[in-house]
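Worked problem 6 (solution included).
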Amino acid sequence: MTPPPTVLLRIELLNIEPLIWRRVRVPAKWKLRKVHDLIQRVFGWQDCHLHEFRVGEVHIGMPEADDLQEGLQDDREWTLAEVLKSGAREFQYVYDFGDWWEHRVIVEPESRTDVGASAAPVCLAGENAAPPEDVGGPPGYEMFLEAIADPAHEEHEQMLEWVGGVWDPKAFDLNRVNRELRKRR
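Solution. The predicted structure is:
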């Protein structure tokens, strides 16, 4: 079976309430390293940390940067089409092994109207702002949200200053995300 020219992915950030997610269409021929770059952009992160994909029992990531994990396969060698050929319709992506941002990546079926869609990457939908870089993983993000929501909290001003003065956890700007994707093509 020939893989489709594009793949529709729903990427969910796990262990956070309310759910933070993005739906993107990407070329099936893309290497997983490029998918990593896309995830960084659609979540507004800065690509400052290691990452890894987990497809079943296979761990795929950055062997050139991580001597600690034996058997790690190179994400510059795997394409999305190869992941699909393996039978996977869902896999994991972990970013920042300290904060441990775990994502579920679900391969969604393309609708009839999506057939023949452009091979350029595009974000189609999403909800909620992604946590700031280096906030401390899900527990740190929860504490961060408590601090910025309560002006009487002892760390309120410090946290707002850290993120540039304003933080809306419900914010998601689809147009901004797609402008960012277009700039990086």
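Discussion: The chain has a mean pLDDT of 90.
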